Amino acid sequence: MTAVGEQRQATRGEASRYLQRRDGSVAQSREQEDLSQLRLLTHAQTPGGLWFKWCSALETFFSTEPAGLHVRNAVVTGASSGIGRELAKLLCKKGFRVLGVGRDVKALEGLKSEVDGFEFIACDLSDLGCVSEISSGVAASYSPLDLLVNNAGYGSAKKLIEMTAEEVVNMTLVNFIAPVVLTRELLPYMRSGSTVVNVVTAGVHILMTQAPLYGATKIALHYASGALRRELKERGVHLVEVFPGVVRTKFHERAGMRAPMRGVPPEQAARIILGAVEKKKGRVYIPWYVGFLRLLGPHLPALY
């Protein structure tokens, strides 16, 4: 055998001995690992082991953020009183960060001191500069936006021929134009899965002789909501249309209107709206039975 052959044979021998040692070490390591696992399993069945597992589970639960958890942001207009105030309060209690919009600074400050997570912008939606202010506020601190509630609105018992041009323009701005423009302005800050809520009125299905301009502006918003629902769906944004009947707020008193019934508490209305948002409903009537106006309305031209 040549020197080269002897060297190759020696190398093979060393390699063989190395592999044997390695395999033996691996086998021993695996055996030790199996024994360790067996000891752990045995220990886990003892009272001390069960206590250890329970404490570890609690530590993991409280120290780990649940998958998909994020801070939810909402904008609620008309947050000074009534449905808007109660909905803003309810959302804050549900963990939302809420940017409320209204005109009554004192009422908004009171709500801010009452719940955590509430901030506000005091402005009048009859001035479209208010929309720009809201948009800037969302861009700065409330993006991405999960929920927009177009709730602000007001009425008047005046006849159409008695209203001034300014009154007609202002009510149309607040009840119809502002919700549409605000939705458009805030849409870039919404993500797929966000929701827009438009508070209309069950009166869109009947002739509201007590408040003709209010009814007309809400019919316009109702019509726009149908179009917006289709347009927003393309971006993954859901739209809920709310049709309140009579709610126990100061709406009728301020409008100089007569309420036909006592109505539901605003707290209940807020819970119903939030439920509709969570269940991704397309429309909701408050209370439920005013939904019959969709069928009866054409036959009751001057019910209200």
From TrEMBL:
Name of the protein in question: SDR family NAD(P)-dependent oxidoreductase
Organism: Thermofilum pendens
Keyword S-adenosyl-L-methionine in annotation: no
Keyword Nucleotide-binding: no
Family: Belongs to the short-chain dehydrogenases/reductases (SDR) family.
CDD domains for this protein: SDR_c
One Gene Ontology MF term: oxidoreductase activity
Gene3D superfamilies cross-referenced by the UniProt entry: NAD(P)-binding Rossmann-like Domain
Region annotated Disordered, chain positions: 1-30
UniProt keyword list: Oxidoreductase
Superkingdom to which the source organism belongs: Archaea
Biased composition annotated in UniProt, kind: Basic and acidic residues: 9-24
Stored PANTHER family: DEHYDROGENASE/REDUCTASE SDR FAMILY MEMBER 7B, DEHYDROGENASE_REDUCTASE SDR FAMILY MEMBER 7B
InterPro entries assigned: NAD(P)-bd_dom_sf, SDR_fam
Pfam families reported in the protein's UniProt record: adh_short (PF00106)
Entry GO CC: membrane
